[in-house]
Amino acid sequence: MLGPSPPADRKANPEPVLTESDCRSRDFYNRRARIYDLHLLVASLLQGVWEPAERRKFVSELKLVPGQRVLEVAVGTGSNFTRIAKGVGPKGRIIGLDISSEMLQRCKRKFRRLRRKADLIEADATQLAVAANTFDVVLHFGGIKNFGNEKKALDEMIRVAKCGGRIIISEKCVRPDKPHSLRDRLLLRHDPLLAHQPPLGLIPSTVKDLTLSWFWRDTAYRISFTKP
Ligand SMILES: C[S@@+](CC[C@H](N)C(=O)[O-])C[C@H]1O[C@@H](n2cnc3c(N)ncnc32)[C@H](O)[C@@H]1O
Asked: Is residue 2 part of a domain?
């Protein structure tokens, strides 16, 4: 049992208190949901990235095992979710959480096409209505740099992971420790938030096996660690 989580496809209860920036994100993604997948595919191609291949690699590096329980925070339209579902198999359980109801609707439809039921929760990443020590893997892919409270969201992801469970945090950001190419400079001019740095300083020093790696042609980081 997952403990006192709200039923799937329901709003978290009680109504979360959102920061101004979280409200902005929610409204932005509710408007963007219809074109999100196409927009990301095209924007990635313009950066020389073939999104499906990067996602396949990202999920394969999760090394999922059938039967595991996985939580994806800010699941969006479920672009990783379907691959994760294959990794954990029919006995596994995956929960997707997002602040945007429209993104979740898209995610739900994708899942229906796979003839699987998605457990989706509409909630803020800083207020996970899920019991502590529940998931084998907690992952996040894109969004954290816009969260109203990055530290609280990270703490929540750690709280709901089992001891020995893995937490993977990924976000778009131009790799800061290499000379910037023309493409990098154009990206940064177009979206200054891509100068966001991997939030290593917010991760408790007690975690184990902490690694930082780069993908999406050096425009996304991947922080991975184990909960002690
Ligand atoms: C860049 S999209 C990433 C979606 C998906 N993970 C992917 O890989 O395509 C960012 C997602 O974060 C969600 N989001 C933004 N702020 C959030 C918050 N405070 N709590 C939960 N989800 C949030 C948005 O609704 C959106 O679906």
From this structure: no
